[in-house]
Amino acid sequence: MVDDEGTNRDLSPNRRQVIAGLAGAALGAGALSAQDPQGRGGNRRAQGKSPWGEETYKEPTPAPVSVRPGEETLPATPRKYTDIQSYHAHIYFDEDTHEKAALLRRWVAERFHVELGNWNREPRGPHVTPSFYFGFTNDLLPVIVPWLQLNSLGLTILLHPNTEDPRADHLYYALWINRAQPVNAYGMKKPGSDRPSVEQIYPNTKPTVAIET
Ligand code: ZN
């Protein structure tokens, strides 16, 4: 309801304050053009020209070039899934979650014959937060995916295949456990004249614990 002063008494005092503030701001904006064209009231406009030029609004909408291999146009047939040689699991953590990462790392090493990498306490390669990784052969996939789903401890995990295209492996062929996070892989090698060799897996753990079933 609205009283004589135009104040809506159905709103909380806080809410009324917000509305009053908005009204004040609108009045201020109107006053700006008439009395204060420089916007000295905290809305100062920079003098000069945009380095992007004055007519970016006229640029046509671009169609990005496909970066997936073999997909410059729609592919005629699906890719062979047997192009996948192995997998990586990258486990991400930060100063609040490193103990969970350490526990998960120990559990993995105790149970799976995988290639366990170093601790990366800082961003490394395309990985923008601290991480560690383990690589595994295709035969372990049907066990490792559900095992990580139930044992992630809430950590973000990137699971990517290894094909002859590391960039696409990280950017386009990925599976995520829990929330995804950025992966800075645009600069990675892609198939071309200096064709990178497919990532090889050399298991280095010695499992001692039977997987719980
Ligand atoms: Zn990887």
- Overall morphology: globular
Strand order of the largest sheet: 2-3-1-4-5
CATH architecture of the domain at 81-177: 2-Layer Sandwich
Low-confidence segments, given as residue ranges, are 1-9, 23-34
Structural class: alpha+beta
> What's the level 1 CATH class of the domain at 81-177?
Alpha Beta
Number of helices: 4
Instruction: Summarize the amount of helix as a percent range.
Output: 25-40%
Commentary on this structure:
The protein is 25% helix and 12% strand. By secondary structure, the chain is of the alpha+beta class. Strands 2-3-1-4-5 form a five-stranded antiparallel β-sheet. The protein is globular and about 70 Å long. The structure holds zinc ion (ZN). Residues 88, 90, 133, 160 line the site of zinc ion (ZN).
How would you summarize this macromolecular structure in one to three sentences?
The protein is an alpha+beta fold and 213 residues long. The protein has helices at 13-35, 98-111, 141-151, 166-171; strands at residues 86-92, 115-116, 131-137, 157-162, 175-177.
Name the descriptors.
213 residues; alpha+beta; Alpha-Beta Plaits; 4 helices; globular
Write the layout of secondary structure elements.
Layout: H1 13-35, E1 86-92, H2 98-111, E2 115-116, E3 131-137, H3 141-151, E4 157-162, H4 166-171, E5 175-177
Residues 88, 90, 133, 160 line the site of zinc ion (ZN).
